[in-house]
Amino acid sequence: xxxxxxxxxxxxxxxxxxxxxxxxxxxxxxxxxxxxxxxxxxxxxxxxxxxxxxxxxxxxxxxxxxxxxxxxxxxxxxxxxxxxxxxxxxxxxxxxxxxxxxxxxxxxxxxxxxxxxxxxxxxxxxxxxxxxxxxxxxxxxxxxxxxxxxxxxxxxxxxxxxxxxxxxxxxxxxxxxxxxxxxxxxxxxxxxxxxxxxxxxxxxxxxxxxxxxxxxxxxxxxxxxxxxxxxxxxxxxxxxxxxxxxxxxxxxxxxxxxxxxxxxxxxxxxxxxxxxxxxxxxxxxxxxxxxxxxxxxxxxxxxxxxxx
Length: 308
Prior knowledge:
The protein is mostly beta strands. It is 0% helix and 53% strand.
C-alpha cells in the first residue's frame, strides 16, 4: 500500500546537516577551521584551526567527551573539555567530506562518506583507529545509522538509497533519496529527492508515504524529531511539517544566498541554521527567528550542537 500526501512548499536557500548536543555550537568554516561558540554567553570560546577542508563532518561520542571532525585529509579527535586536538587519523584525501554518523551500539563505530572518491570509511571511535575503507559504486551524499545501529543507510546522487551492513550492500527496496537522509526508528527511514520526501518502512515492504513538494530549488537537507520534519533547500528556506498529516507547521526564509547546515537541540527545542557568514537561532515549535549572529571568519558550512 502506498500512502500519498500532497502539499505545496515554496523555498529560497541551501542547508547541510549537523549533529546535535547542547549550548556549545561547533561551526564548520570554509577557512580550514571549526569555531566553538557558546550560545548562552554569546561568545566564541575558541577556534580550532588548521582543520583541512571547506566542509567538515562533525559527530560526538555517547559521553559527549569527544568530538570527531572529518576534514579533507584527517579525522580529528577533539577533547570537548579542553577543545584541544588529541589525535588525528589519516583519511583518503577528499574535497567533499559531507557525511558522518556514529553507531549508537556499544562499538560506537563511525561511518564517514567521501563524495569525491566515492568511499565509505569505518573508524573505531573508542580505539581511535581506522577499520577499513570501502569503495562505493556511485557518489554518496549522506549516511545515517538506524536507532539500534544495526543498519547503515547511504544515499547517492542518482536518487538511490542502500543499506550497507559492512561489505553486504543491498538496495533498500526502492527507496529514493539524494541529499536528505534520517532514520525515524529502526524500520522507517526518511529521504528526500529534488521535489519529494519519502517515508519508507523497510520492515513492511511497499509501505511508503510520498510527500510531494513544489520547490524552487533542490532540497539539500532534512532533520527529523519524533513526527516533525525540518527541511532546507538550496535557496535558503526552512520548512517544518508533520509526518502524520503532511501539514506544514511553518516556512521561513533565512535571508541568505546560500544556507549550508541545520542542527537541532532537544532540551530547548531549538534549531540552528548556518548560511553565508550567519548563524540563526530558531524556535523549532514556531519557526520564530530569535537571534541572528554574524561571523567575520567567512562562509559557514556546518553546525553541530554539544550539550553539557
